[in-house]
Please model this.
Amino acid sequence: MLSNHIQNGIETARLVWSRLPNSEEAEAEEELFARRSNGGAGVESLDYEVIENYAYREEQALRGKLWLWYYVCLKWLFALLIGIGTGLAAVFINLAVENFSGWKYAATFSIIQHSYFAGFLVYIIFNLGLVISSVFIVTHFAPAAAGSGIPEIKGYLNGVDTHGILLFRTLIGKIFGSIGSVGGGLALGKEGPLVHTGACIASLLGQGGSTKYHLSSRWLRIFESDRDRRDLVTCGCAAGVAAAFRAPVGGVLFALEEVTSWWRSQLMWRVFFTSAVVAVVVRSAMSWCKSGKCGHFGSGGFIIWDISGGQEDYSFQELLPMAIIGVIGGLLGALFNQLTLYITNWRRKYLHKKGNRVKIIEVCLISLITSVISFGLPLFRKCSPCPNSEVNPGIECPRPPGTDGNFVNFYCSDDKEYNDLATIFFNTQDDAIRNLFSAKTFHEYSAQSLLTFLVMFYSLAVVTFGTAVPAGQFVPGIMIGSTYGRLVGMFVVKFYKKLNVEEGTYALLGAASFLGGSMRMTVSLCVIMVEITNNLKLLPLIMLVLLISKAVGDFFNNGLYEEQAQLRGIPLLESRSKQYMRTMTAKEACKNQKVVYFSRIVKVADIVSILRSNKHNGFPVVDHGQNGETLVIGLILRSHLLVLLQSKVDFQNSPFPCDIRGISNRHNFSDFVKPVSSKGVSIEEIHLTEEELELYLDLAPFLNPSPYIVPEDMSLAKVYNLFRQLGLRHIFVVPRASRVIGLITRKDLLIEENDDSAIMELQSTSVRSQQLDRRTMGRHVQLEHPLLDGILTQE
Model:
């Protein structure tokens, strides 16, 4: 019995391993991903609109209250699992990064006691090994794992699907790639990839697991629409931010402000619950690690920079230098966006087209340059004497080699000296930021060291962003901002000698200003900075610098994620329509389009011909009325047509309407669900015989009989708002309807199943007399009725 179980386990492992992509498959996948993300030629819109065809209505009619309770409970269960999964992923990434960094610095410091050159070689080898593992995973296993992933996730929640961004291999590549790139000392962070990681976990749960790797369950495969998956991915994004910064409220606000395009109160509850679960998981992991079971994982693991012991109050005289910090953040943030846009565009056009080998060489060169700068520059910096231990009893100077903290003894002649530039370079990014934020550390850093680090790290961050490794910009942005913020704080300390000014406070404001000038977030970023610093008294100052930096940055260009989304060809719909759209009509917007449509009864050969000659994803379906005029009866999706052609069970010999009652025996709604991988079935994969091409297909049971329709003279601005707010993929533009069969008002939408006499009395006699007839007709709508007869004008 046991041998059978072992044999089954071995066979399952072999099957999963056989499905892992080899280098040739990954290279083809990379070419497809690059082709789709360059110019937007391969991105595909999502169907957030519910397709109310006959199969959908039949399935809804069979679902009772028990199924509804199961559906709601499963949503909350998934919110719990997303929080637990994202929290565990964050714990694993942080533990791995801290331990790899701890081993690297411990080995380096132990060797430089004898030879700095040997220590330099060990330092380079450690960094190169980690970085090569990261870029190898991305180029040969998961090409969609490169970058932060936030622009792609933002596009997904906006209604645009980019191939491969939510696959299981992308999740694995994101986790292990982040460990290598961040642990290898590159000028990037793990916070953006954690958002992508949470989204991947949510998407995999939404589709019931990974069918390709046989890690799925049919009991979880209930969320069959893009709308349900969108809500889960939103929970995953919030969980990623909550796990990265230990900021659950900031995660909720980040999902609301930055990534999602549709929001409602029910989703707010689930997102809040998911973020709370993440906070519990991360806190439990930190408590467990305090017992010393996590190796080199120390206080620098999960981000929280407690500066509550710093500056307690501020004066109006300090508002001017704080405003200057906001201006500097806006300028440097806008410059960072523009430089990364230019370099990334050049890299994608000329460098990355040459293959994976060039990508690996590029990342290795950047790793070498980063290692040389971080190790070499502190060698030219003169060491400073340690602060007086009697005046500052809580300061340990110098710190023990290979441990986190301030005051690193590096290339110093005396044991009681420290190298301020090595204190920033020879630390993990979390520890370096904690040192820059630290209070009661006057004159720890010289202005020359801070300026040197600012120029070098800013340049490295610009060059590193866009390489073929998972890369986030939260923590590098915080490091850049905290550096020039502390420089301004040093000036304020010298200028206002009588004020209780802390340099760490200005470092915090500088970090907020750079993130605001680069990413253009306000509310969510403000809450995140308050949560990770544990100091509510600085909230008004953070708000001030964020508002100024965002205003200055908006004057020059868009935010970082918007710029990168545009570069990747992701057509985001912003919250507001353009000004010129107010003077255009819907007819003018589609005047050059050639409408390709199907008749209700269509020959299979005609369907195949149209699908091969057109790339449209939706087609109007028309029928002839009693007077012989052509009437629109609905919308049929390309993916649904491909399913029908592949199944072949609906083909018929006669060109007459089919019997709808037998449809439910041949299809259910899940047959038409698009896979999350966004590949689906292509027309080239379907093979039909000559006899099958001569058969007919009745499209009426499979079309959406009630798509959204706008009159041809509606302003394009109203069409834009309707399209974006409802998450549509298609809108029909039709001539203005000639007659009205009813009028929908607010009272019609508020009436319960059992009519309320008080509400009925509020309605006019003309409306009340026609209401019962209209409802009776609505319950017995036949698919043969033309769509235009059902147009209702909203009040």
In short: DSSP finds 30 helices and 15 strands in the chain. The longest strand covers residues 630-637. The CA atoms of residues 124 and 372 lie 8 Å apart.
